[in-house]
């Protein structure tokens, strides 16, 4: 006991020695923590979906795909947009509503979607971010399409009537819900298309609940993908 007390007194008499020992202990603790942090908390393989979920021409093999789709303000990829439009087209066919024909285009449209009124030779433009992307900028980007679409229609001969030589007229439709961040462009494009197809664009909620819309879309597509995957697996077993 006396030796221990004398040793403590010696440390107190030499504070620099005591501080040095504490520093060594602290350094060792930091090294241990660094080693623990380097340990992988999860494996990348944990994110894989095996077998991949098939959604038309789209194959979904990562759980992060669903997280991105559901997470508000997170930009969607081209594959997300393709999957959502594929899902909408399937819903249109099953519902039997044939009053509108629809197709998809390149995701170049980004923050805007266009509704082509063939009968009136007119293109309606819906901009979900007019506070950020001004109408003048949008119309400048639209102008080349007003000239090229008639030309493509004449060459493809998909219309049963003679295609006019004049460019399309256009306008930017006002009063539609607007996004409040830079990451929800994709869901607005899809929901605009859905309401336009149902001819209910004027009834689209404003302000629009993007969190609920993304959640519902993720759940519906997931359910559809699960059903298609189960059918595919059962057919493979047979």
TrEMBL record:
InterPro entries: Papain-like_cys_pep_sf, Peptidase_C48_C
Protein name: Ubiquitin-like protease family profile domain-containing protein
Keyword Hydrolase carried by entry: yes
The keyword Protease is annotated on this UniProt entry: yes
Superkingdom of the organism of origin: Eukaryota
Keywords, alphabetical: Hydrolase, Protease
Ubiquitin-like protease family profile domain ranges (all copies): 1-196
Pfam families, sorted: Peptidase_C48
A GO MF term: peptidase activity
GO terms of biological process kind: proteolysis
Family statement: Belongs to the peptidase C48 family.
